[in-house]
Amino acid sequence: MSTFTVSATLGHPVHREQSAQFDLLVDTGASYLLLSPEIVDRLGLETRIERRVMLASGERVVYRLGDVYIAFNGEEHTTTFLAGPPGSRALFGAYALELFGLAVDPVTQRLFPVPALL
């Protein structure tokens, strides 16, 4: 499957003035948004708990979990993110894609709207 990035505004869920635009790698294999510690610090985001996760390599690690504001494609939401290791690439995972009602077309490398499933 091909990979591509999209640009979205990320910010503090309460203090929206603490926001900036970032490129996110679209990754349907990732559950959550993944943000580097550099982004977490820049936006003043808090992490409240630890979450055990399994990487694509099969390695099991523990990352901190918190909430982030995200504006994309004309919509704004607050969603959950994982704080990855230093220098990690920001990922737009499956939960966030579903929150925005989007699916991935890997051939054209674009996102398109889909109805939510109940």
Distance between the termini: 27 Å
| Number of domain modules | 1
What would CATH call the class?
Mainly Beta
- Which outline best applies? globular
Percentage beta strand: over 45%
Radius of gyration: 14 Å
**Can you give the helix content as a percent range?**
10-25%
Q: Name the CATH superfamily classification.
A: Acid Proteases
Instruction: Supply the number of helical segments.
Output: 2
Structural class: mainly beta
Runs in which pLDDT lies below 50 for 5 or more consecutive residues are none
Corresponding CATH architecture: Beta Barrel
Mean pLDDT: 95
Q: N-to-C SSE series?
A: EEEHEEEEHEE
Instruction: Assign the CATH topology.
Output: Cathepsin D, subunit A, domain 1
Outline of this structure?
By secondary structure, this protein is mainly beta. Helix content is 11%, strand content 49%.
Write the layout of secondary structure elements.
Blueprint: E1 5-11, E2 19-26, E3 33-35, H1 37-43, E4 47-54, E5 60-72, E6 75-83, E7 91-92, H2 94-99, E8 102-105, E9 110-113
Parallel strand pairs: 2-7, 3-6
Antiparallel strand pairs: 1-2, 1-5, 4-5, 5-6, 8-9
Key features?
118 residues; mainly beta; Cathepsin D, subunit A, domain 1; two-stranded antiparallel ribbon; 49% strand; globular
